[in-house]
C-alpha cells in the first residue's frame, strides 16, 4: 500500500530524516514509535505532501506521490489525522465530518457520504449524540474522535494518525486505541505514530523504532514489546530492577 | 506445507523492500552499538546513511572468522550481556571456537526459522523427532530442538553417541524423524544392519541432516538404508545456527531465509561477486539478529544460488547443497579437491563401504594423496586379483572425477574412525 524508500527530509540545512525506508501493507496496523523530536511528525507530513523530501521515494498504491500536492494525495486515498486534533471549533460536529467528505463529493460519491456518516456514528456513538454541537465545545477525547471521523469520511485506503493519544486522559486513550484496533479489524490500513509505545505496539501488527531520524529497529509488534532495549527506552519499564 | 506461508512465499518486490529496511536498521544498530563495525565503517568513510540500495552493501568490508576470534568472547555483541539469554559456540572445526549470543527475540526468530525447514522437510506436529546432534555449545541440537517444539512435534533430546541405545529408543519410542549429521546417520544405519534390525521394524519417515558437507550419493544410500526421505539443511553459528537454509521436499536446493539473511556469492580470491548462478563463497549479512548481527560474513562455504522459482511455491531463492568448505579444500598438485567428490565416487563402486580417509603427504615438491577405503568383507576373502581390480577401478574413477591420480589402499571394514558429530576425513601431514 505504502512504500517509502531512502527518504531524506531537511528543514533548511538541518537533516531530520535520514534515508528512511518503511512500508505498510494492505490491512496492516503499523506503528512508528520514537521519542519527541525523533522525526515522526516530519515523516507523516512528508508523506501527505506538506513537506517536500530532499530525496527518496514515496509510493502509494504503486504510484509515486512524492511530488504531488496534498489535496491529490488525499484524493488518492491517503488521509492524515494531524497532531493536536485541529477540528473546526466554530462548526457543528456534523459539518466537520461532512467537510472531511469533500473528496468524496468531488468523486461524485454523494450516496456513500451518508452511509459513511452513519458508519462513523456507529463507531463513535458520542459524535452522534453531539451531532449539532459546536466542535469547540467537545472534550479533548471527543475532538480526537471527531478528527479521526473526519479523516475516515474521505474514504481513505490508508489512514495515518499522528499521536492520537496526546494530552488525553488514560481512560480516553484506551477508547481511542480500541477504535484504531477496530479499524484494523474492519480491514482498514493504519499507520500510527505514537509516543505511547506500549499501547501502540499492543494493537499494531508491526512497528518501527525511530531514533534521531533513523530506523534502528523494525519487526513484529510483539517482538518489539519483548525487546528489553525498547522496554527500557520507551516502555518505561525498569527491567534492571525486575531482575534484582 | 509452509510454516510461515506469508513470509516464505513473499512477493520478491516486497521482499526487497523488507530487506532494505532491515539492512538499514541493522547497519544503524551496529554502527551505534558495536565499536568493531563503527571503526571499520569509519575507516572507509562509510556512514549507514549512505546506503541507498541493497547493492551498496558491497561497499562494506567483509567480516571473517579471525575478527570473531580477535573479539573473543563478547566483543561483537550488539546488546549488553544482560539482554543475552543464550550463548553458543562454533564447533571448532577450524581452530578456536567462536562465541555467539541470542536475545529472547533471537531465540524466537531462530525457532521459527528452524520450524520452517522442518515443515519444508515434511515434519509436522504428528512426528516424533529424535535429535541426535550433540547437545551443548554446538548450535545444532538446541536449534533443531526449539524449532521442533515450535512445530509441535514430540521431541526426543537424544544427543549423539551410544548408537545401540539410539536404535533401541528409535524402536521403542517410534521415532518418525531423525536429526543429526549425515555421517552419524550412516553410522546408525550400519549399526542397525549389524544388529540385524530390519528397517521395516522402525517408524522412521524423515531424515534431516546437516552441519557438514555430504553428497547426493550419500543421501541415496541413507534413504535406502533407513527407508526415509532425507533432506539437507544448512546453518552456521556465526549467523544463527541451523535454519539459515533448508531443502523442501523437491530436494533440489536449499531455500534460504532471505527475509532474515542477505546472501552474496563471491569469488574467494578476488572477493568480487560471481556472475549469477556461478559457484563461489557464500557471504551472509544478518537482517534481524539483535544480539549478534553479522555484516558480510565470509562463511568459507562454497555454493551457488539457484535463481529459478521452485515447484514448492516458496519464493525464497535456493542454494545448491554446499559443495565443500574452503577450509577442507585440498590442493593436490595444484588441483582443488573436495572430500565430497571422493565420497561420491566411492558410493558408486560395488565392493566398497562409504567410509574413507584421505591422507596427504608431501614427497619432495609433490603432494601425494592416499585414499584409504574400507572394503566389504567379501573382498578380503577373495583372491588378490579381485582386490587389485577393485583398486584399479577406484583409481580410474577418481582420476576421471578429480582430474588427478591418487593412491588407493583397501582397509578392513570398521578399521577407520566413525563419527558421531562432524566427520573428519582428511589427515593433512603437509601442515605438520
Ligand atoms: N548442510 C550442510 N552442508 C554442508 N556443510 C554444512 C551444512 N551445514 C553446516 N555445514 C558446515 O558447518 C559449518 C557451521 O558449523 P559450526 O558453526 O557449528 O562450526 P564449524 O564451522 O564446524 O567450526 P568453526 O567455525 O569453529 O571452525 C558451516 O559453515 C558449514 O561449513
Ligand atoms: Mg565455521
Ligand atoms: Zn522448494
The secondary structure category of chain A is: alpha/beta
Q: Trace the largest sheet of chain A across and list its strands.
A: 6-7-8-3-9-10
Biggest interface reads: A-B, 26 and 26 residues
* Count of alpha/pi helices of chain A: 12
Full CATH superfamily name of chain A: P-loop containing nucleotide triphosphate hydrolases
What structural class should be given to the helix and strand makeup of chain B?
A: alpha/beta
Cα Rg of chain A: 18 Å
Number of strands of chain A: 10
CATH superfamily of the largest domain in chain B: ANL, N-terminal domain
Distance between the termini of chain B: 50 Å
Please supply descriptive tags for the structure shown above.
heterodimer; A: 244 residues; alpha/beta; Rossmann fold; six-stranded mixed beta sheet; globular; B: 432 residues; GMP Synthetase, Chain A, domain 3; 2 domains; nine-stranded mixed beta sheet; 25% strand; binds adenosine-5'-triphosphate; binds magnesium ion; binds zinc ion
Task: Give the gist of this structure.
The complex is a heterodimer of chains A (244) and B (432). With 244 residues, chain A is an alpha/beta fold.
Task: Characterise this structure.
Chain A contains twelve helices and ten strands. Chain A is of the alpha/beta class and 244 residues long. Chain A has one domain: P-loop containing nucleotide triphosphate hydrolases (Rossmann fold), CATH 3.40.50.300. In chain A, strand 7, helix 8 and strand 8 form a beta-alpha-beta unit. Chain A is globular and about 45 Å long. In chain A, 48% of the residues are buried. The mean pLDDT of chain A is 91. Chain B is α/β, with parallel strands linked by helices. Chain B has twelve helices and 21 strands. In chain B, strand 3, helix 6 and strand 4 form a beta-alpha-beta unit. In chain B, helix 9 packs across helix 10. The mean pLDDT of chain B is 94. The chains are: A alpha/beta (244), B alpha/beta (432). At the A-B interface, strand 1, strand 2, strand 9 and strand 10 of A face helix 2 and helix 5 of B. Adenosine-5'-triphosphate binds next to strand 7 and strand 12 of chain B.
Amino acid at each position: 500500500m505504502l512504500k517509502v524508500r531512502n527518504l531524506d527530509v531537511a528543514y533548511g540545512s538541518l537533516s531530520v530524516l535520514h534515508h528512511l525506508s518503511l512500508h505498510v501493507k494492505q490491512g496492516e496496523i503499523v506503528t512508528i514509535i520514537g521519542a519527541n523530536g525523533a522525526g515522526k511528525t516530519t515523516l507523516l507530513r512528508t508523506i501527505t505532501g506538506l513537506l517536500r523530501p530532499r530525496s527518496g521515494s514515496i509510493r502509494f498504491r504503486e504510484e509515486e506521490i512524492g511530488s504531488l500536492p496534498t489535496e491529490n494525495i488525499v484524493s488518492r486515498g491517503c488521509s492524515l489525522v494531524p497532531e493536536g486534533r485541529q477540528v473546526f471549533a466554530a462548526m457543528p460536529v456534523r459539518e466537520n465530518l461532512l467537510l472531511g467528505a469533500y473528496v468524496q463529493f468531488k468523486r461524485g460519491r454523494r450516496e456513500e457520504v451518508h452511509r459513511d456518516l452513519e458508519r462513523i456514528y456507529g463507531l463513535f456513538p458520542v459524535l452522534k449524540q453531539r451531532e449539532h454541537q459546536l466542535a469547540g465545545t467537545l472534550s479533548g477525547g471527543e475532538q480526537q474522535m471527531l478528527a479521526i471521523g473526519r479523516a475516515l469520511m474521505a474514504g481513505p485506503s490508508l489512514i495515518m494518525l499522528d499521536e492520537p493519544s496526546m494530552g488525553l486522559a488514560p481512560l480516553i486513550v484506551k477508547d481511542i486505541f480500541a477504535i484504531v484496533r477496530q479499524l484494523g479489524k474492519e480491514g482498514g490500513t493504519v499507520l500510527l505514530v505514537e509516543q505511547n509505545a506500549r499501547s501502540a505496539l499492543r494493537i499494531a501488527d508491526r512497528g518501527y523504532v525511530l531514533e534521531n531520524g533513523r530506523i534502528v529497529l523494525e519487526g513484529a509488534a510483539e517482538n518489539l514489546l519483548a525487546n528489553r532495549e525498547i522496554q527500557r527506552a520507551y516502555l518505561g519499564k525498569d527491567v534492571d530492577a525486575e531482575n534484582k | 506445507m509452509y510454516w510461515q506461508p506469508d513470509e516464505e512465499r513473499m512477493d520478491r518486490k516486497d521482499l526487497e523492500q523488507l530487506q532494505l529496511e532491515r539492512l538499514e536498521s541493522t547497519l544503524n544498530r551496529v554502527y551505534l552499538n558495536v565499536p568493531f563495525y563503527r571503526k571499520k565503517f569509519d575507516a572507509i568513510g562509510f556512514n549507514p546513511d549512505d546506503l541507498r540500495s541493497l547493492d551498496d552493501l558491497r561497499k562494506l568490508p567483509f567480516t571473517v572468522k579471525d575478527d570473531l576470534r580477535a573479539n573473543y568472547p563478547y566483543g561483537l555483541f550488539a546488546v549488553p550481556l544482560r539482554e543475552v539469554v543464550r550463548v553458543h559456540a562454533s564447533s571448532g572445526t577450524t581452530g578456536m571456537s567462536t562465541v555467539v549470543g541470542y536475545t529472547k527475540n533471537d531465540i524466537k526468530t531462530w525457532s521459527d526459522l528452524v520450524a520452517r525447514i522442518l515443515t519444508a522437510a515434511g515434519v509436522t506436529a504428528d512426528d516424533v523427532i529424535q535429535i541426535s546432534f550433540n547437545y551443548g555449545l554446538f548450535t545444532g541440537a538446541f536449534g533443531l530442538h526449539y524449532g521442533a517444539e515450535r512445530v509441535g512435534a514430540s521431541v526426543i533430546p537424544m544427543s549423539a553417541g551410544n548408537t545401540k541405545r539410539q536404535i533401541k529408543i528409535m524402536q521403542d519410542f517410534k521415532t518418525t524423524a531423525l536429526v543429526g549429521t549425515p555421517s552419524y546417520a550412516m553410522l546408525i544405519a550400519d549399526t542397525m544392519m549389524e544388529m540385524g534390525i530390519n528397517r521395516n521394524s522402525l517408524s522412521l519417515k524423515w531424515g534431516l541432516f546437516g552441519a557438514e558437507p555430504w553428497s547426493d550419493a550419500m543421501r541415496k544410500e541413507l534413504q535406502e538404508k533407513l527407508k526415509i526421505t532425507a533432506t539437507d539443511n544448512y546453518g552456521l553459528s556465526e549467523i544463527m545456527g541451523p535454519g539459515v537454509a533448508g531443502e523442501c521436499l523437491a530436494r533440489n536446493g536449499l531455500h534460504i531465509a532471505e527475509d532474515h539473511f542477505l546472501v552474496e556469492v563471491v569469488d574467494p580470491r578476488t572477493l568480487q561477486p560471481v556472475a549469477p548462478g556461478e559457484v563461489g563463497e557464500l557471504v551472509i549479512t544478518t537482517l534481524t539478529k539483535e544480539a549478534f548481527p553479522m555484516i558480510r560474513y565470509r562463511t568459507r562455504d562454497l555454493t551457488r544460488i539457484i535463481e529459478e522459482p521452485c515447484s514448492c511455491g516458496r519464493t525464497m531463492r535456493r542454494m545448491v547443497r554446499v559443495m565443500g568448505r574452503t577450509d577442507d579444500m585440498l590442493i593436490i598438485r595444484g588441483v582443488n579437491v573436495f572430500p565430497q567428490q571422493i565420497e561420491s565416487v566411492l558410493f558408486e563402486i560395488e565392493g566398497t563401504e562409504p567410509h574413507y580417509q584421505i591422507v596427504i603427504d608431501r614427497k619432495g615438491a609433490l603432494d601425494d594423496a592416499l585414499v584409504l577405503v574400507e572394503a566389504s568383507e567379501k573382498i578380503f576373502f577373495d583372491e588378490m586379483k579381485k582386490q587389485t581390480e577393485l583398486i584399479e577401478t577406484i583409481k580410474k574413477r577418481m582420476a576421471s572425477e578429480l582430474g588427478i591420480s591418487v593412491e588407493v589402499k583397501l582397509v578392513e571394514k570398521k578399521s577407520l574412525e566413525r563419527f558421531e558429530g562432524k566427520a573428519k576425513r582428511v589427515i593433512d601431514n603437509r601442515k605438520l
